[in-house]
């Protein structure tokens, strides 16, 4: 038998969010590839994956919020 022990202060699991850096030119040529990439991450890992793409301006304050950016 397995027991799960948790205290009240346990943090809820955060979702993996993929950010995409906006730049001059065609910065999002194939939006479907991002969804396919996130599906793969969800199927081969234990990460809770958020399937919404975040477009991020190349500012330090914006980039700091997202540990994974393409």
Describe the structure.
By secondary structure, the chain is α/β, with parallel strands linked by helices. The protein has two helices and four strands; from the N terminus they run E-E-H-E-E-H. It has helices at 31-44, 60-63; strands at residues 15-16, 19-21, 48-49, 54-56. The chain has a two-stranded parallel sheet with strand order 1-3. It is flat and about 50 Å long. It starts with 14 loop residues before the first strand and ends in a 7-residue tail after the last helix.
Descriptive terms for the model:
70 residues; alpha/beta; two-stranded parallel ribbon; two-stranded parallel sheet; 2 helices; 26% helix; flat
Question: What secondary-structure arrangement, pairings included, does this model have?
Answer:
Layout lengths: L14 E2 L2 E3 L9 H14 L3 E2 L4 E3 L3 H4 L7
